[in-house]
Design goal:
Elements lengths: L2 H6 L2 H8 L9 E2 L10 H17 L1 H24 L6 E4 L2 H11 L8 E5 L4 H14 L2 E5 L7 H14 L3 E7 L11 H10 L3 E5 L11 H4 L3 E5 L11 E5 L32 H17 L1 H20 L5 E3 L12 E5 L5 H12 L1 E2 L1 E3 L7 E4 L7 H14 L1
Helix pairs in contact: 3-10, 4-10, 5-6, 7-8, 10-11, 11-13, 12-13
């Protein structure tokens, strides 16, 4: 058994990890997909940097941060994901990065087509539809077969590329926020390349719980969050552009603070959350010390499988995410098939069992309840979820 798989089951080890976080009274949080928590040491480091910036104001920022420290932090981020520093730029979050990539992609002409599916994030859908109004392109919208399989996902994209030869750009989400479905990005990207379709990848939920290599995936454009599974303060994300493709993304609204060959010109220039950025070296250090995405992914997958394996075949419950290990991660959704109102069931989980979850709408397969454990969630809390689902079904 691999070390990460063995450690994922070690409740004593993960309790020592949970002890690094301040415990807050209240419901058991099974909605950790929204954003992650900072460790106590990261919170303390963040607070120190807030005080430092508040005291030194623009003196440190102008003299040191902008010219030196921010570049070093960017280099550390690039090292973390295995790319060149010149290929990443900080943003407020994944959405901001993805919107910049979509609106500034310059290879579209009137009459071209762009593609999105039912599982994309709503702001990504909105940005792709914005292209139709402002660039004269046609938006092709598809729905994925449910339940999804590796082969059905590839077949849907293959058929779509053949049916719509004017497709030039598509949105693709690595880990879908509605159901937790993990898309086979590398295989889809290979198909897209065959048909001359560029991909803008939404990696918001992928970074920190999935291991990946952007070059191996065949991805040239992507947006990520740092405040979900990496453990950073809020308001931190970044965009990625493969260096050889930088010219295909215009400077954002004529951004002139950086040269044309600098990726930072592809995002709006503004005052960032400097104390949060200064905290990233410690965040990266703690992420690596734990074992990175391999260790984190193994743990949340283990917790996910505890509840899914217990309820998958129960009448009255449908788990909407497949069990193919290529297609799931710690985020998984389900629905009560005997109850039409999933929001009412979320409220019952909270009021009757002290379990906090969230409804996700918008997938073609219908509303579902998203369940996302964190690295501090215990196996005992997952067993409470199993009991609640069994009684409520």
């Amino acid at each position: 058994m691999p070390d990460n798989t063995r450690r994922a089951r070690d409740e004593a080890f993960w309790q020592t990890f949970a002890d690094r976080y301040d415990r807050h009274p209240g419901p058991v949080n099974l909605e950790n997909g929204y954003f992650g928590r900072m460790s106590r040491t990261v919170v303390e480091d963040y607070q120190r940097h807030i005080e430092q910036i508040n005291n030194s104001n623009s003196i440190y920022v102008r003299q040191r941060f902008e010219q030196h420290d921010s570049l070093d932090i960017r280099a550390q981020l690039a090292e973390l994901i295995g790319v060149r520093a010149q290929s990443v730029a900080f943003t407020q979050n994944a959405t901001a990065g993805l919107q910049s990539l979509i609106r500034n992609y310059n290879r579209l002409e009137p009459g071209d087509q762009v593609l999105l599916c039912d599982l994309e994030y709503d702001t990504v859908k909105g940005a792709m539809r914005w292209l139709a109004r402002h660039r004269g392109v046609e938006v092709i919208e598809i729905e994925h077969t449910h339940p999804a399989s590796f082969d059905s996902l590839l077949a849907t994209y293959r058929e779509t590329f053949i049916r719509h030869p004017k497709l030039k750009l598509m949105a693709l989400t690595h880990v879908t926020h509605r159901t937790g479905l993990v898309m086979p990005v590398q295989a889809i990207a290979a198909l897209a390349k065959e048909h001359g379709v560029d991909i803008i990848l939404d990696g918001a939920h992928a970074l920190g719980q999935l291991e990946f290599d952007l070059e191996a995936l065949g991805i040239a454009f992507a947006g990520y969050n740092l405040h979900k599974w990496i453990g950073s303060p809020l308001t931190l994300g970044f965009l990625y552009i493969a260096p050889q493709r930088l010219a295909d993304i215009d400077p954002d609204m004529g951004e002139m603070h950086f040269p044309l060959n600098d990726i930072r010109s592809r995002t709006p220039y503004s005052t960032p959350n400097i104390p949060a950025l200064m905290t990233l070296p410690l965040v990266f250090e703690e992420h690596r010390a734990l074992g990175g995405a391999a260790a984190k992914g193994a743990r949340v997958n283990y917790l996910r499988n505890l509840w899914v394996s217990a309820v998958r075949n129960l009448p009255g419950i449908e788990v909407t995410t497949p069990d193919d290990p290529r297609l799931y991660c710690g985020i998984t959704s389900m629905r009560f098939t005997r109850h039409a109102d999933q929001q009412a069931m979320v409220e019952r989980l909270l009021n009757d069992y002290n379990l906090f979850t969230v409804v996700r709408n918008g997938a073609a397969c219908g509303p579902c309840i998203r369940i996302t454990p964190s690295l501090t969630t215990t196996a005992a809390e997952i067993q409470s979820l199993v009991l609640a689902l069994n009684e409520l079904r």
